[in-house]
Amino acid sequence: MQTIPAMPEHSLSMATGKPLMPYLACLFDPLTKPGQTVPGAVAARERLVTSLLQTCTAVRVDARRAAREAAKTDADRAEIDRTLTAADDRLRFVVVHHEQAVAADASFCRTRGEEPGC
Predict the structure, then answer these.
(1) How many C-beta atoms surround the C-beta of residue 19 within 10 A?
(2) Could you read off the pLDDT of 45-65 as tens digits, one per residue?
(3) Torsion angle of alpha carbons 70, 78, 1, 44, nearest 10°?
(4) Residue 28 per-residue DSSP state
(5) pLDDT: which is higher, 32 or 47
(6) Which long-range contacts (CB under 8 A, 24 or more apart) does 9-16 make?
């Protein structure tokens, strides 16, 4: 069983984190389009993740550069790469280990007393 990738503990300032948004959108928006489904075969899921990561490479470079320019502290600069890597890991988990991701989401919602998909 794959574990859910942890997000970094240090949170970025808004000014530093905002430039990363185009990269996060590049990774995750294609998964939210109407009619988009997660492929059934794990190999196809791996190809989807690889394709998204390759498609978003230039956006990642630009987002990282802009975030580093906006960073005011060494802690923020160090956190940028951890945040980008965590986003890549989270994408892989959500797509490749889709069933576990859905189950983890439902479990999280239940612990809050809410319906799955909260």
Answers:
(1) 20
(2) 999 999 999 999 999 999 999
(3) 50
(4) H
(5) 47
(6) 10/75, 10/76, 10/78, 10/79, 10/82, 11/79, 12/67, 12/76, 12/79, 12/80, 12/83, 13/71, 13/72, 13/73, 13/76, 15/70, 15/72, 16/67, 16/70, 16/71, 16/72, 16/76, 16/79, 16/80
Per the listing, tokens 């942890």 go with 6
Amino acid letter for position 71: A
Q: Please give the model's pTM, rounded to 2 decimal places.
A: 0.75
| Amino acid at residue number 102 | V
Give the mean pLDDT of 94-110.
78
Q: What is the DSSP letter of 102?
A: H
